[in-house]
Amino acid sequence: MSSVAVIDYGMGNLHSIAKALQHADARAHVQISADAHVIKTADRVVFPGVGAMRDCMQALRELGLADVINDVARNKPFLGICLGMQALLTDSEENGGTACLNLFPGHVRHFPDNLTDAEGRALKIPHMGWNRVKQKPHPLWHDIPQDSRFYFVHSYFAAPDREQDSIASSDYPRPFTCALAKDNVFAVQFHPEKSQTAGLQLLQNFLRWDGAA
Q: Per DSSP, what are the bridge partners of residue 107?
């Protein structure tokens, strides 16, 4: 039986992702925890999050979880979701500039003001709703058709320094990275737990993934 630790640092819809993981594989032992031992001994780790980056990083450091994440993200299957993806980059423009975990070299940028689509219609910030995802080859896309739609809610986006770290993109209206991958780490800007069939398949793939690309 696979054990999954969902990192609890006081931010994010933790029960929603825990329920989605349990639905993806009823045999999985899913535990929401801020305990370093529980997180370090789990077979897999999920790092979700919503809210402000400064609050996120402050909570992680106060709970001693920043070092825990840096540790487990190097040695077991690790999934970052939404703010949990953005926090893996070097820094964020949010809150006037916030240092992040630096697992992926790069920056978190705010969508530009006055965005318009191809017909000149204004696009709202945050980017909210369903959008197509253009994949690059990776085991976590198994059985998910190219250009499948996933559910997004965000005002900031990842801008990795290395093209090879970007494993998927979406358009709003220009392409932006919506998934990162390196070694045993996979992270997504969208919410798989809100993304119906495609999201459930991604979570199933994660629960079967051995961390190899």
A: 91, 159
The CATH number assigned to the domain holding 182 equals 3.40.50.880
> SS3 for 36-89, per residue?
HHHHHHCCEEEECCCCCHHHHHHHHHHCCHHHHHHHHCCCCCEEEECHHHHCCE
Full domain range(s) for residue 83: 3-208
Tell whether pTM > 0.85: yes
Point out the residues that are catalytic.
82, 191, 193
Task: State pLDDT tens for residues 54-94.
Answer: 999 999 999 999 999 999 999 999 999 999 999 999 999 99
Number of compact structural domains in the chain:
1
